[in-house]
Amino acid sequence: MRWLWIDCIIEYEPDQRLVAIKNVSLAEEHLHDHLVDDKPIMPFSLMIEGMAQTAGILVGSVTRFKEKVILAKITRASLDCDVTAGDTLRYDANIDRIDDGGAATVGSIDRRVPGGDAWERIGKIELMFSHIDNNMSGISFPKHNFVFSDNFKMILDTAGLGELLDN
Amino acid sequence: MSRDDIFEKIQEVLDDALGVDEDEVTPNASLTADLGAESIDFLDIVFRIEKMFDFKISQGELFPEGLTENEEWVHDGKLTDSGLVMLRERMTHVNFDNFADGDRDVSTIGDLITVNSLVNFVELKLAG
User: Fold this and answer.
1) Cβ contacts of residue A85 below 8 Å, gap of 6+?
2) Which among A42, A64, B31, B34 could bridge A83 via Cys, Cβ 3.0 to 4.6 Å?
3) How does pLDDT run across A89-101, given as a tens digit for each residue?
4) Where on the phi/psi map is residue A142: left (φ > 0), alpha (ψ -120 to 50), or beta?
5) Is the pLDDT of residue A160 over 70?
6) Which of A30, A32, A34, A131 is the catalytic position?
7) pLDDT at A132
8) Segment 87-126 of chain B within 8 Å of chain A by CB
């Protein structure tokens, strides 16, 4: 079981863009161990993981999840403010470049303005993904795609995108 | 586009891809040995050069790939004569002279890719 850091997919433009939502909750134990001035703060590293999962699904979908897509590099990441319990985050991932070897993605993190429907931009993340079967010559990996496991299927199914995994 | 213009753009590419300062990007700087590039950085650099100069780079065109899988090219971790001929034909932007006269350890081939190699490559691509 892999720990998912996104709750649902809300937009999908094939081969281009995928948007996911993350609701930050005090039910998440890690928040109780990451306090800044006694306030529970979501670690930025977990937001990067959330973006990596969002962008990783997008990159995987280009080849209908036939390639094993691994996060290989955090090219650039910036965050302008703290995120805490009760916040809703929106990860907006876009493919910048993609080829047989891997992909580069650019993305933004938005936070829902408390008490409203508006969103504010709070961060930017650029990532590199590797298609490991094409890059790690001499190393063999299991044939099945262990990257996109059952809980990813659940998220895709919930978003009505399960057929991408089945083809 | 002049060679100096290409060099300046390559400086920008490496600044963005590797997080190095432009003054570190000297013509003879090795991407791996001097600028700290790792394997995934090569893909990043390929993407950025494609975007910067608006041409397509095939896999293995800019950086050597799949060498060790061919015994005709690599034997006991050393580049063979036919491997050297193949690389010189395929990668005219890289200077293999010192490598050819040395121990030909393939694990050090990546060190041969310098900033100048990238400038040579772009110059050749733009010339068609």
Assistant:
1) A24, A25, A26, A31, A40
2) A42
3) 999 999 999 998 8
4) beta
5) yes
6) A34
7) 76
8) none
Cβ atoms B111, B98 nearer than 8 A: no
Instruction: Tell me the residues of A at the B interface, defined by beta carbons under 8 Å apart.
Output: 72-73, 75, 96-97, 99-102, 104, 128, 130, 134-135, 137-138
Please give the domain boundaries of chain B with CATH numbers for all domains. 1-63+113-128 (1.10.1200.10), 64-112 (no CATH)
Nearest by CB to B39, from A104, A135, A138: name it: A135
Chain B residues with CB-CB distance to A134 below 8 A: 59
Domains of chain A: 8-146 (3.10.129.10)
Based on the residue annotation, tell me whether A32 is a catalytic residue of this protein: no
- Cβ atoms of A100 and A134 closer than 8 Å: yes
Q: What is the mean pLDDT of residues A100-108?
A: 94
The whole-model pTM stands at 0.86
